[in-house]
Amino acid sequence: MSKDRFAYTLDSFRDIIEDVLRRAREKGASAAEADVSEGYGQSVTVRCGEVETIEYNHDKGLGVTVYIGKKKGYASTSDLSPKAIEDTIDAALSIARFTAEDEAAGLADPELIVRESRDLDLFHPWDISVEEAIELARACEAAAFRLDPRVTNSEGATVSAQQSQFIAGNTAGFLDGFRSSRHYISCAVIASEGDQMQRDDWYSSERCPADLAKAEAIGDYAGRRALARLRSRKISTREARVLFEAPVANGLLSHFVSAASGGSLYRKASFLLDSLGQQVFSPIVQIREEPHLPRGHASTYFDDDGVATQPRDVVKDGMLQGYFLSVYSARKLGMRTTGNAGGCHNLILAPGEHDFEGMLKQLGTGLLVTELMGQGINLVTGDYSRGAFGYWVENGEIQYPVEEITIAGNLRDMYRNILAVGNDTVVRGARRCGSILIDGMTIAGN
């Protein structure tokens, strides 16, 4: 793969956006916004040493939003020819004319618009050939098979390289965009013993290929995780401390973001309604949003509304300092946007003093959870119930794997009952955190 296979330049994208905004105004829109994007990449998957799939992608698209007063219309196209762009503008205007007025609709106030571009070091194209990717995937998977003859099967090892670019703009004075990349190596294998089979996986995802974990290390760790799950047992129903391993602890942050986001709040579908300034988490919890991290997975200097992003404390000493609001949701709530149209930007749970082994010692006797199943979360009430796989721990030492259990509680109580946060931080999408120890959850078993 060559280092740059974009069909368009960013300057040509700027010209397209400027032209779209001008035409929309000429056709009767009181305001308009648009974005144009392009992405290309390749993904190779090897299973049991044989090439299973080779996929190439090269996509482009344009989205146009127009406002006629407080009426809004949206249309999109993957065809960037002049005729298709014209038709897309017309379609958006037609939709707007037949849409009911919404007092919260409209662009961001001009004083909130980002005015200065920043280089966040997000674009690192991966110049890897298909042949090289195949060999890397084979090496990744082979590392798992080398571990133990009980690693008997594989769901595949994948090497993916992706590059993209976009420009967005609106009639409030916003026009900006950038190139970015996202690459990953993953492996999922199956271990078996007798009539029992267990699956586990691991992956590494980074902006820059040089930052990826070694393929052999990923495969080795995936294999070790699958082997560790063999000879799993059931346990009886009980109350106990629960330690969420870092990757699944990330989900607890995700639920918090959903409950603290404008859409849930103005619909009154969140247990965090009217919680600003209140004790939501344990006093040991500090959560910060850092949108300008170099090479960050969710770094950006503006949100989907074109509003400038700012680093900020979201939770300080367990107290909720701010929600996640777009221009629209902020208006619905009578508040000010937080620059979170499109989601959060590098949400970081501050690490504590203990590594993973130290967190097991803090757990003492209880359940270590490494996988969650199902979607048993009610954001309105905070009720939480998930199928789980994990390990029973006694005196800070893992004793045996545990399956066919459910862990249950209420997010409101779970957040307040956080006893410790680990420094075994992992990054998963827009969030990064270590393991989280929670006191007093219900574990439903036999």
Major sheet attributes:
6 strands, antiparallel
- Let me know the average pLDDT: 97
Tally the helices: what do you get? 9
Order of helices and strands: HEEEHHEEEHEHHEEEHEHEEEHEEEE
Order of neighbouring strands in the sheet with most strands? 3-2-1-4-5-6
Low-confidence parts, pLDDT < 50 over ≥5 residues? none
Structural class: alpha+beta
Beta fraction: 35-45%
Radius of gyration: 24 Å
**How far apart are the first and last residues' alpha carbons, in Å?**
53 Å
Q: What percent of the residues sit in helical stretches (DSSP H or I)? A: 10-25%
Number-wise, the strands total 18
Q: How would the global form be characterised?
A: globular
SSE topology:
Elements: H1 10-26, E1 31-47, E2 50-68, E3 71-77, H2 82-97, H3 130-147, E4 151-170, E5 175-193, E6 196-206, H4 215-228, E7 238-244, H5 246-259, H6 262-266, E8 287-289, E9 312-316, E10 319-320, H7 327-333, E11 347-349, H8 356-363, E12 366-373, E13 383-394, E14 397-410, H9 411-416, E15 418-421, E16 426-428, E17 431-433, E18 436-444
Parallel strand pairs: 7-12, 11-17
Antiparallel strand pairs: 1-2, 1-4, 2-3, 4-5, 5-6, 7-18, 8-9, 8-11, 9-10, 12-13, 13-14, 14-18, 15-18, 16-17
